[in-house]
Every structure is written in C-alpha cells, then in structure tokens.
Amino acid sequence: MSVPVPLLELRNVSKAFSGVEVLHDVSFDLRAGEVHCVVGENGAGKSTLIKIISGAYSADSGRIAYFGRDVHHADPRWARGHGISTIYQEIDLVPALNVAENICLGNEPRTRGGNVDRAAMRRLAERLLDEIGVSLDLDASAGSLTVAHQQMVAIARTLSVNSRVLLLDEPTAVFTGTEVEALFRIVRRLKDQGLGIIYISHHLEEIFQIGDRITVMRDGRVTRTGPVQEFDRTSLVRAMVGRDIDFSRQSQAATPGEELLRVEGLTRRGVFRDISFSLRRGEVVGVAGLVGSGRTEVARAIFGVDRFDSGVLLVRGVEQRFRSPRHALSRGLGMLPENRKEEGLVQSRPVLENAAYSSVQLQSRLGFVPWARIRRTVRQVIEDVGVRCASTNLNVRSLSGGNQQKVVIVKWLAARSDILVLDEPTRGVDVGAREEIYALMRKFKADGKAILMISSDLPELLTQADRILVMAKGRIVGEMPRDEASEEAVLGLALETRREGHRAQ
Amino acid sequence: MPSDRRWRSVLAGLNDYSAALVLICLLGYGALRVPNFLSEMNLSAILYQYSIIGLLALGQLLVVLTAGIDLSQGALLALTSITTALVMVKHGPVLGTLAGLTLPTCVGVMSGLLVSRLRMPSFLVTLGTMGVARGMAMQIANARPVPIHHEAFIAFGSGTFLHIPISAFVWVVACVAVHFFLTRRAFGRHVYAVGSSEESSRLSGVKVAAVKLTVYVLSAFLCAVGGVIWTSRLGSGSPVGGQNYELESIAAVVVGGASLFGGKGRVDGVFAGVLIFGVINSVLNLSGISPFWQGMIKGAVVLLAVALTQIRARAEAQATVGMADA
C-alpha cells in the first residue's frame, strides 16, 4: 500500500516567545480520514502547535505544507477560508444569535438584493446539523443551549466552510458520558467523510477510544508518534511525563476525628433541597453527580456566596449562616471554585499577592498590611505546596493551569483554613500536576484538615475520597463508602434519578 | 411542563414589549388626566422635539449594541447646525445641508477608527470627540448663533404633512431602515454578534473592526440628520444646541430595553423609549411641574428601568438554574 499524501505536514517547526523556545524542531503530519490525537502536559506546546496550524501564530522556522503545497501564513482567516477549522476550548458561539445564525455567522447566504436569506440559512443549518446527526431547535439562542449542544453547533459551523482539517481542543472538558458518546459519533462520521481531525484531550480513555494515531509532546518536542495500538495507558503516560505515575494509588483510609462541618436539611428553593451530610477531620468526602445536579450550588451556599432558604449549617458544632465568603473564611473555611480563572484568582496580579488575598485581613495590624511577614508565610506555603514559578512577582496569568490551581490552594492555607471545599480541583490540569494535587490532598488529610471534593471525574473520586455522596436534581440520592463504590454504582445513581425525573415531567 | 413553558414565553413576550406597555399607560394617563394633552399643538410639539432625540437614539442603539457608547451626539448636533448655517449663508441650502451632513460624519469616522483600530474605550474616545466637535462648533461660529433666511429650508423643519411634522416622518423612515438593516442584512446581524461576543465574532470571520467603525459613522450621520432638521426648525445655526441630548438618547435606548453590555436591543423598544420620555416631558410641562422636578423624575425613570432590567436578568438566570435541576 502506498503511503497517502498527508493533508497537512509540519517539518522541523520551531517557535519561541521572547527568547523562550516553546516548540523545538516539531514534525507532525495529518492524513485524510484519521483522528490524530495530540497529548502532553500543560505547557508541553500543544496549544502553540494548534495555533500555528490554525494560523494564529507563525512559525519561526521549519516548513508547513497543506495538500503538499508550502504555506507561509499566520492568518486565521486564510486558514478558515481554506478549510482548516478550529473548535476552541472556550466555545466561541455568539450567545445573542440563534442556532441557525451562529452556524452561518460570517458566511450568511444572501438573496440577490444582498439581504440575509433566512430560508436558505435555515436550510443550510438544518443540512449541516443533519450531516453530523444532530437535531436542534434552529431558533433557540446559542446562550440557552447546553455546552455540549453549543459545541455541536460550533462543529456544524465549521462544515459550512467545507473543512478539510478540524482541530478539536479539549472538546469534552465539561461533558457527561452520553455527550462524549454523541461527540464521538460526530467525529467518526466526519472521519468517514475524509476530514483529517486533530484531537487534543487530557482524558486518556477518550484517546484510546477515538484516536487512530497519537503524537506525544513534552517540553516543546515530539517525544513519540505512532498508531494508537502501539500505546497502552502506562506507556502513554510515561511518554508524556517522562516517569511512571500510578493512578491506582488510593489515598490512605481515613481515621476521621472530630466533626468540623455538618449540614442538615439545607435547601435553596429551585436549586437544591434537603442536603444533609457531615465532614470530619482527616476526611475527604467526594460529591459526584452530573453537571447541573446542584453540587456547585451547595458548595457556594455553604461558603456564604449564595443564600440558602432553610436548613442548618454547623461549623465545629456552632450554627453558622455565613453572610459572605469573608465571614466563612474567618471561621476556617476555604473554597477552590470551579472556575479558577474568573473566581479563584486575579489573573493580572502577581502570584504573591493572589496567595495573600485571603490572609491579608487576618494578619493586618491597625489596618496596615505587614508585607514582609506575609511574604515570608506565603513563600513558605508556596514551597510546601510546590508551586512552580520563576518568581512570586510574576502575574498568575503566566502560570500553567495546574500551578494556578495550586496558588488558589496556597491562598487558603495561608489563611489557615482547615475546611476546604474543592470544586473540580483537577479540571483542565495535566497528569503530572494532577498527581501533585492528589499528594497535597493526602497531606491535608494527614494534617487533620477536612475536604469536600466535588468532581466529575469518577476514577478521581473513587481513589481520593473516603466517602462519596451522589447528587442528582438538587438532592443527595446516595452515599457510599469508597470500598463499596464503583463507577457503575455512582453513575447509575446519578443517571437513574435523572430518568425518573424525566418521566415525572 | 408545557403550561409552565407557555407562561414563561408570555412573560418573555411582556418583557419584549414592556416599553410599549409603559408608553400606552402614559398615553392613557395623559389623555384622561392632563388637559390639552391631546391637542394637535401639544402632540406636534412632542414629535418635533423627540423625533430629533429619536434619530440620535437610533444611532445610540447601534453603538450600544456593540457594547459601546456615544457621548459625542449632542456636540455633533451642534456642529451640524453651525456648519449648515454658515455654508448656507454663502452657498445656499443644498451645499449647506451637504456640508452639515459631512463634517460630523467625518468626526464619527474618527471616533470609529479610534475605537475599532486602536481599541480605545468608546467612553473615552467619544468624550474626546465630544470636546473636539463642541469646540469646533464654538470656534467657527465665534460662539454666536447664525441666522438663516432661506424660506424653503425653514419650511422643511417646521412643515407638516397630514398635520404631522415632517421630522416625525424622517424619524419613522430612519427607524424602519435601521430595523431592516439590523434584522435583514448580514452586517446588521454582525452588529449583534460583535456586541454579544467580540472574540467569537472575530474567530467566525466577522469583520469586527469594520462593524465597529460603521456604527460610529452611522451614529454621527444620524446626529447630522437630526441636526439639520433641528437647525431648519430653529431658523438659525447654534453652536450651543444639543446640550445633553446624548444623555437623553442613552436613556431612551436603556428604557427601550437595550443592554449597555451589548448584543441586546431592538428598534421598536427604542422607538417606544423615545416616546416615553416625550410623553413624560409633555405631561410634566402641562401639569406645571418645575424643571428641577422634571429632571429628578426623568432620572428616576432611567434608574427604575435599569433596576428592572437587572432584576429581570437575575430572575432569568435563576430560572435557568432551576430548569437544569427540574
């Protein structure tokens, strides 16, 4: 069999930003009708690679060939116009426009008079959605769709420009199992139509399910490329991090101490109701459930961000009703929010300052901020936690996702919080940093802190939590100790109730 | 639950037309409780004044839809007025009008370029061009009004057709044109897209800079049209006219249901918003309420409209959370 001409080929591409080389001598090729997965830790150079292919950056050296012809572009419009489409991690629909308008945005069918031909637009949108096997209300505004549906609209849109190459950057970050399945069906369909697909994901299972070939990147270089059959989980992770990571390692079983937090019958109308559980020293309690099951909302209510209508919240045996996060903080609570970029950190300020925000109040004397002392404590904690940054004066923005997450944790440690609510602590975090966050959690347990961990990652819950609460439709539908929990059992509970809910409607 | 959904869509429909409902209530109040409100003279007076604010508000809507704001409107109106008058005195009404339409539009091009190319905040850019336009108007006029003696030109501004001021027809035609532009032309849809999510629009191949430039130019042009009518009705060019008109146009846009964060707003709402202020103004005048009270009342109306929008948005967000769990 002759080797097919690759759709897209990069030869010895390098790229540096202000003297720091982020891609070194990278070669990569994509064939028609294949799904080529690119994996690597955050900061390995995947995003830069994607951006060079999509035309957002230009390469410093090396060659890029598209359909066998050299291109020297750094022009997203050119790339789009020639069939290289990118679905970004942050989905880029226009919330105010409807589904049909979003699919045709920038490419609207016109009548002879130059007006938007709405009928033709609807037909086109319908045909493209049909092509990927999805049916959606064309008149629904994009802002009202679920993230998964938004993504499908984004994919349909790329087809409106006759894509040959499709780049998917972490497409399933917030998907549930069924949504992932739906996306895979679409990807397979596009593959059969002869598109070349570049697929980036942190979820290794997905890569084994959908990938044809894998390219592994580390520190700006390609460490390995090969058919998916040549890899297994262990060898893939080793290629990514350059060392072995044992995912099956469970945290030590807890020897729980006194009760630090207890909620009884916590209810917020229309959001969650009758939530009761307790959290003890040295214990990690996991909260499982689908997106929208009310997990984050419970955490926010406990931490004083949102109100609750009824129920009791006890911290160290004393009833509390926090008026504000600051109030909760003063009683030893800390929260790592789901969306660290917006809620956890001030991106444009230095690491040191971010880490100190929550403790400034505690340490201030007569309203003055003792920067020298704060710097000492924060530096100490940063070192303990293992935040990797060249200087604590760097802006948080310049840190990788995993390190940003650690800065949020530092913030609460510096404030001496011992009840930590972690909402999706490892979302968007690479394998290496994920392991480090787990290690931190084990250390917190040993230090006698209590952790409430919300996570959509079942293996993570099953290895890290001592007990697992399952939420669905704003209620706790089950609780099980780790020894009795399995992925099937947890997911079954989370989904089963969902179906009943649909019947009830 | 279908009944619940229907209820919700009825509510949404009410929200879409809440400005129109308020307007109807005000008109009803005026007709029943305020003597002389329904007289032809009073209704014409409302239309004369507020069709000009209405033209400005249309331009303001376009800018606000892209999440910007145009503070230069009142100053542009004055610049139009003085340019029209000065050129007309020497070269006649046709050239005068053309000059009056052109110069402010050029200032609009400047604002648009600064906002779209240099990505400067619209608030500061139009604060700057406001100063430039007002200063220019004062300078070329020596801070004095310039009388106009062309009967035909003056007749246009105070003329009526079927007892309705011609300026009102101009306004309505402009409304229809802008509505058509916003709903039917691809470029108009792109105005919503840019205001709703600029980055997404850019990535979709929308010419973001061109869209932004265009809305400032259109806003300036509509100010100029308003300025010509205003000058014609007044019978003289004035460099001090249009003071605070931009605030009235912003207020009308907000009361008409547009979001200052962009991407949301419609011509029919703004149309109602403008008339709401026209009617309030007239009712207060006829009731003999002092201008100071009037200022406070109009301010309160704006605050109330914004507060209601906020509460509504929050309720909607709450409803979506509820639905996800239901």
Sequence-ordered SSE layout with sheet pairings:
The complex is a heterodimer of chains A (505) and B (326).
Chain A: E1 8-17, E2 20-30, E3 35-39, H1 46-54, E4 61-66, E5 69-70, H2 76-81, E6 84-87, H3 99-104, H4 118-131, H5 147-159, E7 165-169, H6 177-192, E8 196-200, H7 204-210, E9 213-218, E10 221-227, H8 233-241, E11 259-268, E12 272-280, E13 284-289, H9 295-302, E14 310-315, E15 318-320, H10 325-330, E16 333-336, H11 340-344, H12 351-363, H13 371-385, H14 401-414, E17 419-423, H15 431-446, E18 450-454, H16 458-464, E19 467-472, E20 475-481, H17 487-504
Parallel strand pairs in A: 3-8, 3-9, 6-7, 7-8, 13-18, 13-19, 16-17, 17-18
Antiparallel strand pairs in A: 1-2, 1-4, 4-5, 9-10, 11-12, 11-14, 14-15, 19-20
Helix pairs in contact in A: 4-5, 12-13, 12-14, 13-14
Chain B: H1 2-16, H2 18-33, H3 40-65, H4 73-91, H5 93-116, H6 122-141, E1 146-147, H7 151-158, E2 160-161, E3 164-165, H8 166-184, H9 186-196, H10 198-203, H11 208-234, E4 236-237, H12 245-255, H13 267-286, H14 291-325
Antiparallel strand pairs in B: 1-4, 2-3
Helix pairs in contact in B: 2-13, 3-8, 3-11, 3-12, 3-13, 4-5, 4-6, 4-11, 5-6, 5-11, 7-11, 8-9, 9-11, 12-13, 12-14
Q: Describe it for me?
A:
The complex is a heterodimer of chains A (505) and B (326). Chain A is α/β, with parallel strands linked by helices. Chain A has two domains: 8-91 and 164-241, Rossmann fold (3-Layer(aba) Sandwich), CATH 3.40.50; 259-504, P-loop containing nucleotide triphosphate hydrolases (Rossmann fold). Chain A is built from 17 helices and 20 strands. Chain A has helices at 46-54, 76-81, 99-104, 118-131, 147-159, 177-192, 204-210, 233-241, 295-302, 325-330, 340-344, 351-363, 371-385, 401-414, 431-446, 458-464, 487-504; strands spanning 8-17, 20-30, 35-39, 61-66, 69-70, 84-87, 165-169, 196-200, 213-218, 221-227, 259-268, 272-280, 284-289, 310-315, 318-320, 333-336, 419-423, 450-454, 467-472, 475-481. Residues 498-505 of chain A have low confidence and may be disordered. Chain B has helices at residues 2-16, 18-33, 40-65, 73-91, 93-116, 122-141, 151-158, 166-184, 186-196, 198-203, 208-234, 245-255, 267-286, 291-325; strands at residues 146-147, 160-161, 164-165, 236-237. Chain B is 79% helix and 2% strand. Chain B is mainly α. In chain B, helix 3 (40-65) packs antiparallel against helix 13 (267-286), helix 9 (186-196) crosses helix 11 and helix 12 packs across helix 13. In chain B, the strands form two sheets. In chain B, strands 1-4 form a two-stranded antiparallel sheet. In chain B, strands 2-3 form a two-stranded antiparallel ribbon. The N and C termini of chain B lie close together (10 Å). The chains are: A alpha/beta (505), B mainly alpha (326). Chains A and B meet through helix 2 of A and helix 9, helix 10 and helix 14 of B.
